[in-house]
C-alpha cells in the first residue's frame, strides 16, 4: 500500500523539520491519482503536527478521485489505523489543509500537455531530475504556474516527485504476460521488451 509509505514520510518530514534539516513547508505539491500519496501524506503530517497545506494536482479524472472519495478514504484509513493501534488518533475528515487543483489534467489521464512537458524539461535540464509526464510533471507545472502568479512569494514550498526511476525489469523478465487477459498485453509489452 503506497499510502502507508507516505504516512511514514510525514513522520520522517517532521523529524527533519525538528532537526533543522528543512523548514516546515507552507505548501506541498503532489500529484493526485489514486489518492494514496495524498491521503497517506496528509495523515502522517496531521499526526506528526506539521501544518503544511497539501496542493494535490489532479492527474486522473474526478470520477476516480473525487473530494467525497478522499474524505471517505481518509476517514476509513484513520479509523483502521486507530483500530490497529488505539494510540493512533482518530482524525476528522474535513480536509481543511487540502487544495485540489484541476486545471493541469489536460485531456485526461496520461495525456501530456505543453505545461507538463515544459515542466519536466525544465526540471531535467536544470536539476538532472526525471519526472513522469503523467504524474509529477503535472504537479510541477502547478508549482511553476503559482510561482509565475506570485502566489509563492514569501512561501516555503516542497515539491514531491513521485517518479520511481529504479529499473524493475529484472523482476518481470521471466514472467509470461500471456497468462493475463489479452486486454492487459498492450500495457505490458513495453515493459517486457
Please explain how this structure is put together.
- The model has no long low-confidence stretch (mean pLDDT 88).
- By secondary structure, this protein is an alpha/beta fold.
- The chain has a 4-stranded parallel β-sheet.
- Helix content is 45%, strand content 10%.
- It has 2 domains: 161 residues, Rossmann fold; 25 residues, no CATH class.
Report the strand count: 4
- Main beta-sheet strand count, sense and barrel state: 4 strands, parallel
Total number of domains:
2
Q: Residue ranges: pLDDT <50 for 5 or more in a row? A: none
The pLDDT mean sits at: 88
Structural class given helices, strands, pairing? alpha/beta
How far is the N terminus from the C terminus?
Answer: 27 Å
Helix fraction bin = 40-55%
Q: What is the name of the CATH class of the largest domain?
A: Alpha Beta
- Which CATH architecture of the largest domain? 3-Layer(aba) Sandwich
- The share of residues in extended strands comes to 5-15%
Number of helices: 7
Indicate the radius of gyration in whole angstroms: 18 Å
Could you tell me the CATH topology label of the largest domain: Rossmann fold
> H/E element string?
HEHEHEHHEHH
**Morphology call:** globular
Strand order in space, largest sheet: 3-2-1-4
Amino acid at each position: 500500500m503506497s499510502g502507508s509509505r507516505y504516512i511514514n514520510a510525514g513522520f520522517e518530514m517532521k523529524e527533519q523539520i525538528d532537526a533543522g534539516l528543512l523548514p516546515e513547508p507552507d505548501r506541498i505539491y503532489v500529484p493526485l491519482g489514486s489518492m494514496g500519496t495524498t491521503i497517506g501524506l496528509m495523515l502522517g503530517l496531521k499526526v506528526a503536527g506539521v501544518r503544511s497545506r497539501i496542493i494535490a494536482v489532479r492527474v486522473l479524472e474526478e470520477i476516480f478521485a473525487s473530494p467525497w472519495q478522499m474524505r471517505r478514504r481518509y476517514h476509513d484509513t484513520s479509523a483502521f489505523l486507530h483500530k490497529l493501534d488505539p494510540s493512533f488518533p482518530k482524525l476528522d475528515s474535513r480536509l481543511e489543509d487540502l487544495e485540489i487543483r484541476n486545471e493541469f489534467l489536460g485531456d485526461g489521464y496520461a495525456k501530456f500537455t505543453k505545461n507538463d512537458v515544459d515542466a519536466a524539461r525544465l526540471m531535467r535540464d536544470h536539476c538532472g531530475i526525471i519526472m513522469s509526464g503523467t504524474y509529477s510533471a503535472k504537479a510541477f507545472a502547478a508549482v511553476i504556474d503559482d510561482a509565475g502568479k506570485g502566489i509563492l512569494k514569501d512561501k516555503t514550498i516542497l515539491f514531491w516527485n513521485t517518479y520511481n526511476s529504479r529499473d524493475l525489469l529484472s523482476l518481470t523478465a521471466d514472467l509470461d504476460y500471456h497468462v493475463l487477459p489479452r486486454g492487459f498485453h498492450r500495457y505490458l509489452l513495453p515493459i517486457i521488451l
